[in-house]
Specification:
There is one protein chain. The two termini are 28 Å apart. The longest helix is centred in the middle third of the chain and has 32 residues, at 134-165. This protein is mainly alpha-helical. It has helices at residues 15-42, 48-73, 134-165, 169-176, 178-183, 189-220, 225-231, 240-248, 275-284; strands spanning 92-94, 99-101, 106-108, 113-115, 120-122, 127-129. A two-stranded antiparallel ribbon has the order 1-2. A two-stranded antiparallel sheet has the order 3-4. A two-stranded antiparallel ribbon has the order 5-6. This is Palmitoyltransferase. Belongs to the DHHC palmitoyltransferase family. InterPro entries: Palmitoyltrfase_DHHC, PFA4/ZDH16/20/ERF2-like.
């Protein structure tokens, strides 16, 4: 299965999800801007180190933004596949979509449709994470973790210098509430941007690192969030290597390079191999 992308899907259905996407996109742009604002200060001359860091910054920014767009724009619904009219064993009937729903698929009230192998509805991206777009979601949050810590690394010296020159109670408050500090004239525009970027990078790094480790854990176990939290069901655990292929595709070792690299998924999002089925195949042999 090759995921289907559409620019129309990048605009979420509800205003709440649209606002979430807008905030997340602005945050990614801020982190990318912070890198290219800091680089001339860290490397005043256009040396080899400067250009290497420019390439690294572009790589992280392009991957974060690209995977973000792909996560939202890829069709993860059951409407992308042909579903039988007869209710099969293990399937459910969705009264809202008025269609048969395959195993591991659930209806999302926010998106208004059934999602193949639904994992969860992401509040940051305003869409559901399912069979077709889970690869892009994982790569996006992974690159966000790296991008935020890299941006903080570049701005660390400047942030420490700005704080140490004027360290007091107001400076400490400004570091954690940069917007209020700027509104009331406690910080200058440059100091505001540094403080705002540093604290948002720190927040994003902590949040998305926890998210990435959590989702990596359940992917290695061959589970979705629903199966892990409510059922603790490991029926679809085929070993960590096959579990990774099922999510990242047959070219799983290349997906970290770019979201544009094709990595076909081994299944169709409707039929899944289970541990019991594999044991039966071994017995038949």
């Amino acid at each position: 299965m090759v995921p289907i992308f559409s620019w129309k899907r990048t605009v979420p259905r509800t205003m709440v999800n649209r606002f979430s996407v807008l905030v997340s996109a602005c945050e990614i742009l801020v982190e990318g801007l912070a890198i290219f604002v800091a680089l001339p200060r860290v490397y005043p001359e256009a040396s080899r180190s400067y250009w290497l860091n420019v390439l690294l910054g572009l790589f992280l920014f392009a991957n974060t933004l690209g995977n973000f767009i792909m996560t939202i724009g890829v069709d993860s619904s059951s409407g992308s596949v042909h579903l039988p009219s007869i209710l099969k064993p293990g399937w459910n009937y969705c009264h809202r979509c008025q269609k048969n729903s395959p195993p591991r698929s659930y209806h999302c009230n926010e998106c208004g449709l059934c999602v193949l192998k639904r994992d969860h509805h992401c509040v940051f991206m305003g869409c559901c994470i399912g069979y077709a777009n889970q690869r892009y979601y994982l790569m996006c949050i992974m690159h966000i973790c790296i991008l935020t810590i890299y941006a903080n690394y570049l701005n660390m010296d400047l942030a420490v210098k700005c704080i140490s020159e004027n360290f007091n109670l107001l400076t400490l408050i400004a570091s954690f509430t940069p917007v209020l500090a700027w509104i009331y004239g406690v910080t200058q525009p440059v100091s505001f941007f540094i403080a705002f970027q540093s604290i948002t990078c720190l927040y994003c790094f902590l949040i998305f690192t926890v998210l990435f480790l959590y989702h990596l854990h359940i992917v290695l176990r061959g589970q979705t969030t629903h199966e892990f939290r409510r059922l603790d069901d490991r029926s679809y655990d085929l070993g960590w290597m096959q579990n990774i292929r099922d999510v990242l595709g047959t070219r799983w070792y290349l997906v970290w390079i770019s979201p544009l690299i094709t990595s076909p998924l081994p299944g169709d999002g409707v039929h899944f191999k289970s541990e019991s089925l594999c044991l039966e195949e071994v017995k038949d042999l």
